[in-house]
Amino acid sequence: MSPEERRWRPGYRALKIVRGPRGSRLYSIHWRTTKGMNGWLHDASDRWNMSAIRRLLPSSFSAAPGDLEALTRRGEEEDPQALGLAPGSLEQLWQGVEALYQSGAHPAIQCCVRLGGGVVLNRSLGLVSGRPYRPGEIDPEDVMGLDTPVNLFSASKAITAMLVHKLDEENVLRLDDRVADYIPEFARHGKGEITVRHVLAHRAGLSKLPPEAMDLDLLAQPERILEVLCDARPESSPGGRLAYHAVSGGFILGEVLRRAADSPLRNLLREKIAIPLGLRWLGYGVPAEQVDQVAINTATGFPLLPPLSNILRRVLSTDLDSLVRLSNDPRFLTGVIPSANIISTASETATFYQCLLDEGQYRGNRVFDARTIRQATEPQTGWELDFTLWAPIPYSLGFMLGSRSLGLFGFDNPQAFGHLGLSNVFTWADPERALVVALLTTGKPILGGHLVPLLGLLRDLGRVFPKTPG
């Protein structure tokens, strides 16, 4: 491969890919920034492919500042000063979202923020199609709208968990019931004592799924997915080691819900949550005729090298690029993947969390009992090491939790509860601030230039919305 240089977005002036000595399997990959030249070596035997290299070449999904307004859609927002916020504070916050977009990592973003029950920020930015932005070529039909449906990925887990808690509230099932009480064949290979609670808490010992579990053709054959789960051998004893169940837990809970309620999972979600909250999109996938309306996901950011690439493969049962391709496949979008394919909008997701923050009430109607929400959000771990993610993650029975220092949802929000989704989907509620945030993104970076503006945005959310007294 001969050396080639490409113009890149501002801040990344040029990129050069140079093959090593003849016979070598090494590539030297360099990117020149405004601060000089950086680079690394990569062994091509480690499944390096040109699609990964292209992710470093010019895209860019960012736009010139003058074009941002043409790519922006705004919904109804309450007067921030009437809510006691400093003048200009929300525009400062939105500038943080724009900076995240300008990093080039996210083709499109939706952001909805609620304070004290009112919507103070409801905007979208970017292009739905995932195509790179080109100056002067903005198609209004391609601009991300407030009602454009987006995949929540793992943020789906919190909603599926609340469906489990709702059926527990209605005495349809109990959290300490064994999974095998509903799925007798699940007891194979010593799994008979795994409970619903263990699955919600990521302690069922089934965090890993074989690669064939990611075969999209299986989504049309749920009995085959169930067979994979029943044949799985546990990695640890029930209630033992904490290990994030990225995909497996959702399939287990989904089948328990279906059998306990004798109802399709899609119907349960619509009946118990979406319809009471007045949500149009919120559901597992979409009908085939609506697939084209769902925002396209795009693999962005720097290519991943070991050990991070290995960790991600263990979590996802596939590599990141493959998962992003799968997520845009009609089979994925029309299937039911309880832990990873709820389709919604930022506004709808914020409505769901507002209901939880309001102790289960929505517009005078009770959707959840307050006790159910307390049960679902009560901490189950401290900063215990998660043996899937290899990081200390605080969990409840279905939610990820905040921290007194820097945590998953920013800074100093120990009572916050929510869930992240691949890879910069943030959904949470913070009772101490009366705050709800739903940030949905279509770029799927792990490492890249987006990290600095993302941390800045999370920091600003804590600054703009201070804790309320008492």
Helix share bin: 25-40%
CATH fold name of the domain at 151-174 and 263-464, please? Beta-lactamase
Q: What kind of sheet is the major sheet?
A: 7 strands, antiparallel
Q: Calculate the mean pLDDT score and round it.
A: 87
Count of extended strands:
20
CATH superfamily of the domain at 151-174 and 263-464: DD-peptidase/beta-lactamase superfamily
Summed up, the helix count is: 14
Structural class per helix/strand content? alpha+beta
> Any idea what the radius of gyration is?
22 Å
Beta-strand proportion: 15-25%
Distance between the termini: 64 Å
Strands of the widest sheet, in order across it, are 5-7-6-20-19-18-15
**What is the overall shape?**
globular
**Poorly predicted segments:** 1-59
**What CATH architecture of the domain at 151-174 and 263-464 do you see?**
3-Layer(aba) Sandwich
CATH class of the domain at 151-174 and 263-464: Alpha Beta
Structure description:
The protein has 470 residues and is α+β, with helices and mostly antiparallel strands. Among the domains are: 50 residues, no CATH class; 226 residues, DD-peptidase/beta-lactamase superfamily (Beta-lactamase, 3-Layer(aba) Sandwich). The protein is globular and about 60 Å long. 45% of the residues are buried.
